[in-house]
């Protein structure tokens, strides 16, 4: 556990410390966070490294092999809500917080960072796996913004960060975009989720023009977590305040199939496996299953003046 304080006996004396390694180790007994842990990111390139973001305004780097805190980063001025390692540059990470600051740091040299400032509290950050120089950020005011890290400003203080200049932005929800994911297998496919209880699928074309494809209320309450399956391109899992987890096959919807027809499906290494075909026979293709979704979208249609936001009807 990250930062669990030492246990005390009945007489107030501290119990003997457990081993600092192994399955019973308490990570960071002396360097624990002093408030809630709001975000985690595991480094897939250096598998012993973990980042944690906290309401105590810090980001901490943990060595899982030695069960110690390797470094604490103090570049935010308010609660840090989101953090994520870069998928290619293995020492680089991005973080965002309630100070509206979005920062990109090299974990080896934290004295300087690049970043920008957005207009609202940051909810989620995600690197684009199909364009590693770019990333997405979602905010409490319902926005999704897409930015290029090469256009961020170098600074030594979050207080000096300039306003964001996104490549594009989407008014995705009327409430906070509390969960978000980028499809790792289909370029330009996004999913957003909100405390307004809806989950939405988006299509971003090659000209960075977003369009709303589909909206669903998955009956999980306010949605706090959403993600694509790493092996099946349109299988989406969502969880929320109702204490439920729902797995949804978005490709069962005719509008989703039509929107992404002809789009290549990639494997986890980025190589094309197959091309999406909205009318293909589902037999023999267990990667994309086009069973019709009988649920009507009419109750969930959303109109957005900044996007094409009308749901396609199901078969």
Automatic annotation (TrEMBL):
GO terms for cellular component: nucleus. It comes from the Eukaryota. Keywords: Phosphoprotein, Repeat, WD repeat. Pfam families: WD40. Residues 7-18 have a biased composition (Basic residues). Residues 1-30, 293-315 are annotated as: Disordered. Gene3D superfamilies: YVTN repeat-like/Quinoprotein amine dehydrogenase (2.130.10.10). WD repeats lie at residues 30-72, 170-212. Residues 304-315 have a biased composition (Acidic residues). One of its GO terms (biological process) is rRNA processing. PANTHER family: PERIODIC TRYPTOPHAN PROTEIN 1, PERIODIC TRYPTOPHAN PROTEIN 1 HOMOLOG. This is rRNA-processing protein. It comes from Dispira parvispora.
